[in-house]
Amino acid sequence: MARNNDPFSQNIDWLTLLLYLGCVTMGWLNVYAAVYSPEDHTSLFDMSTNAGKQMMWIGTTVILIICILVVNHTFFDTFAFVFYGFMILVLILVLFAGTNINGSRSWFRFGAFQIQPAEFAKVATALALAKYLDVPGTNLTRQKDLMYIGGIIVLPCLLILASNETGSTLVFASFTIMLYREGLPSWIPAVGITAAALFVLALIFPKLYIFIGIGALLGLIIMLMPRYNRTMANLLAIGLVGVVMIGYVTGVDFFVNNVLQKHQRNRIKVLVDPKVDPLGVGWNVTQAKIAIGSGRLQGKGFLEGTQTKFDFVPEQSTDFIFCTIGEEHGFIGGLVVIALFVGLVSRIVILAEKQRTKFARVYGYCVAGIIFFHVMVNIGMTIGLMPVIGIPLPFFSYGGSSLWSFSILLFIFLKLDSRRTALTRR
């Protein structure tokens, strides 16, 4: 019989572990490449560089992983709401006692190191959602349950947004993937996708064209409806939807110009028109695309990236780490990294579907959703397909908060899955 609490037993999914180790190792090497200076010839283990500090974070992460794997799997289920409540208190505390870094008061500073609680809030929220949805009788089609779940997600979002950390706030939208799997009415994500599409269209095209498109779309819906469904009530409902959509499109300009902060408006401008102010607000994205494009098919070689060496791309070891991958390892290297993440997310989803408890399944989908969102947005923003919102590439970007939070997120799930594997082998 397999021992349930043996952290090094065959109960751990080794394929997921190998994918994780591959990501962490490649991330460390690329952090080194991003900060490497041919004049200084610093080593991988130089603690004065980001690469050396990242090695320290990797070492402490191993300790965290061992702690996760040796505790009983019921620990995370039992204390899910306790973790969530503690993180809410920490998010409140950071608003008053936190350090302002790059305009965001979302960090605790400890000497030369900083910790960002928002990264760990995603883990706590995932556990709280899994705990709530595991309660017998919970139904996502009921308004009461939707309100409770919405509250669990929105509360940390508001606190993180209050610290001026928009990027981390947007990550919480990834929980929609899990909620849809668990029975969220399809019209809710449909409304969200439609709102996002209309927002982008309103920034690109004249409002009149969009109004004509909305009218044509609703007219087509009415034409395709069976005659017996063309009641006055249904026609009025469709008309009301049209009015709401037109009002929403009309309000986009006001929202962008009067609600968003200047740096947020600039990021949207760059997304809509990549050529706007290439030496100013468009500098990051322009240089990122130059760096990635210069790598071509096979890349310039490890430590041979000229854009990287001369610091053309800001934040290259953190938010823009994918530029180093694209420049030094080319299109092939970029595909390998994307394949690693596709394999990791796919494996997590497969394992989530095999879980015997709803708690483990829900949590697994939360893990997959968070990692997928980070990868999609981070890589998308480096190639100009997504706005620059400053979120890390999981296991690759430099930073202890990021590496710790993603590792904790993943290995809690692997611990839960090990219990399922042990029961299967009995």
Automatic annotation (TrEMBL):
<feature type="transmembrane region" description="Helical">
    <location>
        <begin position="184"/>
        <end position="204"/>
    </location>
</feature>
<dbReference type="GO" id="GO:0008360">
    <property type="term" value="P:regulation of cell shape"/>
</dbReference>
<dbReference type="InterPro" id="IPR018365">
    <property type="entry name" value="Cell_cycle_FtsW-rel_CS"/>
</dbReference>
<feature type="transmembrane region" description="Helical">
    <location>
        <begin position="146"/>
        <end position="163"/>
    </location>
</feature>
<keyword id="KW-0812">Transmembrane</keyword>
<keyword id="KW-1003">Cell membrane</keyword>
<feature type="transmembrane region" description="Helical">
    <location>
        <begin position="12"/>
        <end position="35"/>
    </location>
</feature>
<dbReference type="GO" id="GO:0032153">
    <property type="term" value="C:cell division site"/>
</dbReference>
<feature type="transmembrane region" description="Helical">
    <location>
        <begin position="330"/>
        <end position="350"/>
    </location>
</feature>
<dbReference type="GO" id="GO:0005886">
    <property type="term" value="C:plasma membrane"/>
</dbReference>
<dbReference type="GO" id="GO:0015648">
    <property type="term" value="F:lipid-linked peptidoglycan transporter activity"/>
</dbReference>
<feature type="transmembrane region" description="Helical">
    <location>
        <begin position="79"/>
        <end position="98"/>
    </location>
</feature>
<dbReference type="GO" id="GO:0071555">
    <property type="term" value="P:cell wall organization"/>
</dbReference>
<keyword id="KW-0328">Glycosyltransferase</keyword>
<protein>
    <recommendedName>
        <fullName>Cell wall polymerase</fullName>
    </recommendedName>
</protein>
<feature type="transmembrane region" description="Helical">
    <location>
        <begin position="55"/>
        <end position="72"/>
    </location>
</feature>
<keyword id="KW-0472">Membrane</keyword>
<dbReference type="GO" id="GO:0009252">
    <property type="term" value="P:peptidoglycan biosynthetic process"/>
</dbReference>
<dbReference type="GO" id="GO:0051301">
    <property type="term" value="P:cell division"/>
</dbReference>
<dbReference type="Pfam" id="PF01098">
    <property type="entry name" value="FTSW_RODA_SPOVE"/>
</dbReference>
<keyword id="KW-0573">Peptidoglycan synthesis</keyword>
<feature type="transmembrane region" description="Helical">
    <location>
        <begin position="235"/>
        <end position="256"/>
    </location>
</feature>
<dbReference type="InterPro" id="IPR001182">
    <property type="entry name" value="FtsW/RodA"/>
</dbReference>
<feature type="transmembrane region" description="Helical">
    <location>
        <begin position="395"/>
        <end position="416"/>
    </location>
</feature>
<keyword id="KW-0808">Transferase</keyword>
<keyword id="KW-1133">Transmembrane helix</keyword>
<feature type="transmembrane region" description="Helical">
    <location>
        <begin position="362"/>
        <end position="389"/>
    </location>
</feature>
<keyword id="KW-0133">Cell shape</keyword>
<feature type="transmembrane region" description="Helical">
    <location>
        <begin position="210"/>
        <end position="228"/>
    </location>
</feature>
<keyword id="KW-0961">Cell wall biogenesis/degradation</keyword>
<dbReference type="GO" id="GO:0016757">
    <property type="term" value="F:glycosyltransferase activity"/>
</dbReference>
<dbReference type="InterPro" id="IPR011923">
    <property type="entry name" value="RodA/MrdB"/>
</dbReference>
